[in-house]
Amino acid sequence: MTQLTPSLIGMIIIGYFILLYLVSRMTGKKSDNATFFLAGRKTHWIWISIGMIGASLSGVTFISIPGVVGTDGLNGSFSYFQVVMGYMLGYAVIALILLPLYYRLNLTTIYGYLDKRFGSTSYKTGAAFFLISRIIGASFRLFLVAMVLDQFVLGLMGVPFWATVAISILLIWTYTQNSGMQTIIFTDVLQTAFMLLAVGLTIYFISQQMDISVWGALDKVRESDYSQVFHFEGGWTDPNNFFKQFLSGALITIVMTGLDQDMMQKNLACRSLRESQKNMFTFCLILVVANLMFLSMGALLYLYVDHAHIAIPVKSDQLYPMLALQYLPATVGIAFIVGLIAAAYSSADSALTALTTSFCVDFLGMEKTKKTETEQVKTRRKVHLAMSIILFLTIMGFAQLHDQAVITKLFEVAGYTYGPILGLFAFGLLTKRSVRDRLVLPLAIAAPLLTWVLNTWSDVLLAGFQLGFLLIAVNGLLMFFGLWLISTPPSSQNELVMQE
Question: Binning pLDDT at 50, 70 and 90, where does residue 71 land?
């Protein structure tokens, strides 16, 4: 068993954040808005590509994906890799279609496209749904980390859960408040390295505990039932059906990366479109390998439990923390803590920056204001602090909702909130029709509600068909169809925007 005490873990976390703060001091010498929003558009693409891995995987992937490998439901065994395969198609669409559009329009936030294409209401609607989506997503991810810290560290020291959450958010605010994206790009590189190192060390030490080599352990994974990737036999009623998972993976990528200000803000920080496309394709390849590592580690966790005759926890999210902090060597426990913090904060810090950027640009019109740079920076810092407080309140609100694997809950929520954004962008890109702009917001509210009805009563309404991750597709299609109903033939102004 590990010899990690709550005090030692606390010291490790403090040391880690001191390192992040030092990196922020070295990279964040400017505090102007151009640096905060897009790092001055001067960052080399390779740094962004590496840093995006950590932001994409997050603490959810770090704990939930390995844990769900040994379950029988959605994403059981290696079926999640079907989603990852769909990611590759999604990233190709982003690199070849969306990025050229964003660079051609010289956007700071990607929802500016909706303003040019449809009008102000559509623009605000898209940005508002992003804010809702990202606040929910970031809150779930931070909640997962706070739960682990509360259970194994701060809670044992008598620190209440709300204080654990507050401390977590305060640390993020501290190193992102000045230079935003300029700092995050480099802290994310560091955090990606720590996260992947943690997975590698876990695989190595589990192999040692089982008295086999790393390659021998991976062979056991390959020979086990956990390694099953493809699921065709269950038909469309199977939540792990290949075609459902693959299509969902592609749509999740397009929506949660290509239509998400958080992820695209990093891409727009590249020096040119060509470098941004290099970043996207490189990032895609690394991400596939990283997900294979997480799935393999998950299978090894269950093989080790069988080998050591350890009882499996009720919640799959608790398997990796339990083994790392209570049964495996102390090195694994240290790697787990650092990797978990790195995974969580590499997504949460960029989310906080993206939320601040979107609100400042999309709702406060900061790029169009006549205020001085000093006044704008003061406003941005107030928004940054307000977003931090909103994240805290949201996490506390969700604290009672942890009733299933977090990765499933996260994507389920995203399916409802990102669907209208998908429908808006798809309609803008695939048609030349105008829409009645004032009707877009009611339609964006109606589409997720109707999707929820279909999903809740799918057994009756859809003859047993389960939507699963196809929530995004159904939601987006409903939004697209609704936009068609409130649209008119293309105007000369619309055609001009399309040509631009």
Answer: confident
What is residue 43's three-state secondary structure? strand
Domains of the chain plus CATH, in order, are: 6-399 (1.20.1730.10)
Weakest-pLDDT range from 64-78, 361-375, 461-475: 461-475
Q: What does the block give as tokens for 268? A: 């727009």
Rounded distance, CA 153 to CA 7, Å?
7
How many helices, marked H, and strands, marked E, lie in the chain? 22, 2
pLDDT tens-digit map of 86-128 = 999 999 999 999 999 999 999 989 999 999 999 999 999 999 9
Pairing of strands 434-435, 487-488: antiparallel
And the tokens for 330?
A: 């102390």
**What residues pair up with 43 in beta bridges, in sequence order?**
270
Cα 332 from Cα 337, distance rounded (Å): 9
Handedness of CA 206, 210, 211, 214 (dihedral sign): negative
pLDDT at position 318 is: 84
Q: Minimal CA–CA distance to 343: which of 192, 201, 197? A: 192
Query: What single string gives the DSSP state of each residue in 307-353?
Result: HHTPPPPSSGGGHHHHHHHHTS-HHHHHHHHHHHHHHHHHHHHHHHH
Q: 376, 88 in Cβ contact below 8 A?
A: no
pLDDT in the model for residue 41:
78
DSSP-assigned letter for residue 435: E
Q: How confident is the model at residue 284 (pLDDT cuts 50, 70, 90)?
A: very high
Assign 3-class secondary structure to 373-423: HHHHHHHHHHHHHHHHHHHHHHHHHHCCCCCCCHHHHHHHHHHHHCHHHHH
How big is the chain, counted in residues? 500
Task: Give every CB contact of residue 125 below 8 A, 6+ residues apart in sequence.
Answer: 114, 420, 424, 440, 441, 444
Residue 429 near residue 119 (C-beta atoms within 8 A): no
Rounded to 5°, the CA angle 40-45-48 comes to 80
Q: In 332-438, which ranges are E strands?
A: 434-435
Whether 190 contacts 23, CB under 8 Å: yes
Which of the residue ranges 58-67, 125-134, 162-171, 241-250 would you say has the lowest mean pLDDT?
58-67
